[in-house]
Specification:
With 552 residues, this protein is of the alpha+beta class. Among the domains are: 245-442, no CATH class; 482-551. The protein is 63% helix and 9% strand. The protein has 23 helices and 14 strands. The chain has helices at residues 2-24, 30-36, 46-66, 68-77, 86-93, 106-114, 118-121, 158-179, 181-185, 188-203, 205-218, 253-258, 263-281, 314-328, 332-342, 351-367, 375-388, 395-414, 420-435, 438-444, 446-471, 482-513, 527-551; strands at residues 122-125, 131-132, 136-143, 148-154, 239-243, 248-249, 283-285, 293-295, 301-303, 309-311, 345-346, 391-392, 521-522, 525-526. The strands form five sheets. Strands 1, 2, 3, 4 and 5 form a five-stranded antiparallel β-sheet that branches. Strands 6-8-9 form a three-stranded antiparallel β-sheet, with helices on one face. It has a two-stranded antiparallel sheet with strand order 7-10. The longest helix is centred in the last third of the chain and has 32 residues, at 482-513. It is elongated, with a radius of gyration of 35 Å. The model has no long low-confidence stretch (mean pLDDT 78). Keywords: Kinase, Membrane, Transferase, Transmembrane, Transmembrane helix. Residues 95-336 form the ABC1 atypical kinase-like domain. GO terms for molecular function: kinase activity.
């Protein structure tokens, strides 16, 4: 109970901060902006465009002031060009996560967190941060054995701030979804929940350490990559110790060339390693921007910052392989079928229309030269198609698209004439050969083979039992036709109602014929006629009730 009250108290504090920042940047016109976003007019004036740009700039400044949770959510939304106007996407991409470093007593903090004597493990620690972000700041150090390492220190209290922000943001999105159809249409709830899960994983250094260890195992023995090493004995959920990587950003063509490395070969290695993550491991870097990919002087590729990774199940990986194959070979019909299997939710009004739209998209690829082809624009058009058809994909697909766009951008810087489709084709051939490999077929279908073996083992017994029943004339075959049975029951009910209607009509007519007979009468009509009228009325009421009950 106390924990719930504390979370609500923290949420109220963050709500007060939110209102303060919104007031500061003048968001009285926010409702009008949301309402106007339901329909855009292509004939907007230059004045309106300028006003919109100023509005989006205020959004960006407010987000930066609100802190890490909002900044990271804005950075997540910057990849969703299918959901937001281009000027707002531009502002989202300007969001900076660089903040002033906290002054901390590094030695005292390490000894308290890790329950160690620092001098037993470290020969040097530089107390000037290498980098400072909203969640953590990093320091360079050297172990007693001479190995250089990075110490990543989580900011104090950041977890409570993020949790409070997430609670508040969830409430805000729920309210917006209730009042504005545009918020429901862009599935902002789904986008937010995926973001919240990813951010909480990034907050956990224990999770990041596990990712580093998994990444290292996956690439063990691969010559073109330098994987980071984690130090579990010097790490916990607030402190992470990892090996230091000496290198330069992968898009720094000048330094790569100065090291006598071929940028195109470096790029080939980078693409190969990223595609291996996607199609072989199903465990890939969620944010492969140039700052997170280094090239060493020896030409090896190093992927940094594994706090956020995307994971795929074997089934997800197989569907992704299918999708890539059908995309490369322009099979729109099978693409639509695979999309439905991959989707979390799909409400496609017309599969034929979606198929035609995908065919048009594939034609764009064919009709444009490599220099004209914009992968980013291509994926944006594809995302719009999914939105228009109410198709929600799992988060790893959006992260995959983001990763491919980032990798393609790196490729353009190192080798402007890069053909990303040609880079993928060898993997398609590899997938195809793996699919028909006898060993792979045996592994994938071992359960099916086991079931066939079991059926074959029990088949003689079942067949013998069948013949025994035939010889003993005890075999009984029941044939049930549901449609015929339903028709029979409906006919019986109809006949019953018809009989009741006939009885009521006959009784009523009889009453009319006997109305003038010389008997005791009431209101000029004989009593026997009144009785017959009453009976016919009761029969009609019963018939109507029965009919109503049947219809209900």
């Amino acid at each position: 109970m106390e924990g719930i009250l504390e979370r609500q108290k923290a949420k109220l504090k963050r709500a007060a901060k939110l209102m303060q920042v919104l007031s500061k940047y003048g968001f009285e016109d926010l409702k009008a902006k949301i309402d106007s976003s339901k329909g855009t007019d292509n004939k907007e004036t230059d004045l309106q465009s300028t006003q919109d740009t100023a509005f989006y700039q205020r959004i960006r400044k407010a987000i930066e002031e609100l802190g890490p949770t909002y900044i990271k959510f804005g950075q997540t939304l910057s990849t969703r060009e299918d959901l937001f106007p281009s000027p707002l996407i531009v502002e989202f991409k300007k969001l900076q996560d660089d903040v002033k470093p906290d002054d901390i007593d590094l030695i005292a903090l390490l000894e308290k967190e890790l329950q160690i004597s620092v001098s037993d493990f470290f020969s040097e620690i530089d107390d000037t941060p290498l980098a400072s972000a909203s969640i953590a700041q990093t320091y360079k150090a050297k172990l007693q054995n001479g190995e250089q390492v990075i110490l990543k220190i989580k900011r104090q209290g950041i977890k409570d701030v993020v949790n409070a922000d997430l609670l508040l943001m969830r409430d805000i999105i729920d309210v917006l979804s209730s009042y504005y159809s545009i918020v429901r249409e862009i599935n902002l709830k789904h986008v937010f929940e995926a973001f919240a899960k990813s951010l909480l994983e990034e907050l956990s250094f224990n999770n990041e350490l596990k990712n580093i260890q998994t990444f290292e195992r996956n690439f063990r023995g691969t010559p073109n990559i330098l994987t980071m090493k984690g130090y579990p004995e010097l790490s916990n959920d607030n402190v992470l110790c990892i090996s230091f990587v000496e290198g330069t950003k992968i898009n720094d063509k000048k330094i790569i060339t100065d090291w006598s490395l071929n940028p195109e070969v470096v790029l080939d290695h980078c693409f190969e390693l990223y595609l291996t993550q996607l199609l072989d491991h199903g465990f890939f870097h969620a944010d492969p921007h140039p700052g997170n990919i280094l090239v060493t002087p020896q030409g090896q590729i190093a992927f940094l910052d594994l706090g956020a990774v995307a994971k795929m199940s074997p089934k997800d990986k197989e569907l992704l392989e299918d999708f890539v194959v059908y995309f490369i070979y322009k099979d729109a019909a099978r693409l639509v079928s695979t999309l439905k299997k991959m989707a979390i939710h799909a409400d496609i009004k017309s599969e034929k229309s979606l198929q035609r739209a995908i065919e048009e998209l594939l034609d764009i690829i064919d009709s444009h030269s490599l220099e004209e082809l914009n992968i980013k624009s291509l994926f944006s058009k594809f995302s719009h198609l999914l939105n228009e058809n109410n198709v929600i994909m799992p988060e790893h697909i959006y992260l995959l698209v983001k990763g491919i766009v980032l990798m393609e951008g790196i490729g353009r810087e190192l080798a402007p004439d890069i053909n990303i489709i040609e880079k993928i084709k060898p993997y398609i051939q590899k997938i195809a050969s793996q699919r028909i490999d006898p060993t792979k077929l045996l592994q994938d279908n071992v359960s099916t083979f086991w079931e066939v073996k079991r059926l074959l083992a029990t088949a003689p017994q079942h067949v013998g039992s069948l013949f025994d029943k035939l010889n003993g004339e005890s075999l009984k075959i029941d044939v049930v036709c549901r449609e015929l049975d339903r028709y029979r029951k409906q006919k019986q009910r109809s006949d019953s109602l018809n009989r009741m209607l006939f009885t009521a009509a006959t009784t009523f007519i009889g009453g009319c014929l006997l109305a003038d007979t010389s008997q005791i009468s009431f209101a000029g009509v004989s009593i026997i006629s009144w009785v017959l009228f009453l009976v016919s009325t009761l029969v009609i009421i019963i018939m109507l009730l029965k009919k109503y009950k049947l219809q209900d």
